[in-house]
Amino acid sequence: MLGDALCNPDRFFRERTPKxxxxxxxxxxxxxxxxxxxxxxVMGWWLSQRITATTLVDxxxxxxx
Length: 65
Fold this sequence. Notes:
Blueprint: H1 2-7, H2 9-16, H3 22-50
C-alpha cells in the first residue's frame, strides 16, 4: 500500500480521490473560510478588549518640584 503511494502515485490517489461535485467543494471551502475568519476576528476583538495601552507607575526616585 505505501509502496504504491511512492512508486505509482497516480493510480494510488486515483483510487482514493473523493467524488465531490464543484458546488459541494465550493460550499466546504466557503464554510471553512467563514469559520476561520470569524474565529480570528472574535479572538482579535477579545484580546483588544483586555489589552490596555497605558500603565501608570509611580517613580519614588523622581524629585518633586
